[in-house]
Amino acid sequence: MVRNVASVFRDLDPEDFYLLSGLEHGMRFSEWVAREKITEFARLDGDEVDYRLDRCEDRGLIERKTIQYQGFRLTFEGYDALALRTFTERDTVEGFGAPLGVGKESDVYEVRSYKPLALKFHREGYTNFREVQKEREYTADNEHISWFYTARKAAEREYEALETVYPEVRVPRPIDHNRHAVVMEKLPGVELGKARLEDAQVVGVLDLILEEMAAAYRTGYVHADMSEYNVAVGSEGVTMFDWPQAVSTDHENAPELLERDVENLVGYFERKYPGQVGDVDVLALSRALREDDFETVRSFG
User: Among 137, 161, 185, which residue terminates a domain?
Assistant: First the structure.
């Protein structure tokens, strides 16, 4: 798990961020940045670079490796620090709070702003970069791809999708985005997979989710990763979250991805609440969502 960078963030000097930014720039060209290149990239003199390298390495923001040369690269904590500094400079974030959720592909923290918000750091590629590189289409055309590039592209895609579908679709309101991080409103309610619905609520909740999926399609997006882990249920309805894999409705595979989303969602309800949702024709239901045919959608149960 990536360590929370907030504990060292306030100790960092402007020159530490010059160094981190320089390494970020150098990593556009190679995974490890040679020591002699860092002076140029960070715009610091040699002694200052050595001092900052030691400081940042002690704080877990960078790592070094001796190959044919001595190379350095950012850790995810270093990348977090750069994004967090940008958010503070923009007055998007005023303070850092407790973790809200930690997973394989993202870490989410509460942050203070004009009201409590959520800061999501994308981690795609951190634990299994080769699999992510193979599966995520947004890395397919790049010869040199770092973990940071993969995570940054995921954050860009998620923020773009949220901005497009909000507020027509119930999603966390997007606030700001930088590098691999997205600031958004905190998620209301509880994750569907952790909720226990009464029998009388089951069809109604599934109906609400399907209507949000139809609204997303109407605004131009398919979630493409729909499951009980990406929907929250609360007193005000349902909220769909985690959009980094979303695709445009003009994508050649959009109908198939929507059908898979419907199949995953209906399958979950059938497993957890057997007998409650009736016989569902997934293909017909996904077609109804694409065509915005709510009478068909509402008749599935």
Answer: 185
Question: Are 23 and 62 spatial neighbours (Cβ–Cβ below 8 Å)?
Answer: yes
In the chain, the number of structural domains is 3
**Is 109 inside any structural domain?**
yes
192: which 2 tokens? 């569907």
Q: How far is CA 295 from CA 66, 236, 300, in A?
A: 65, 23, 9
Convert the pLDDT of each residue in 122-132 to its tens digit: 998 765 444 44
- Would the CA dihedral through 42, 44, 46, 50 be positive or negative? negative
The verdict on residue 39 lying in a domain is yes
Active site residues: 225
**pLDDT over 80 (residue 235):** yes
> How is the beta sheet containing 70-74 ordered, strand by strand?
33-34, 70-74, 62-66
Tokens coding 235: 């007193």
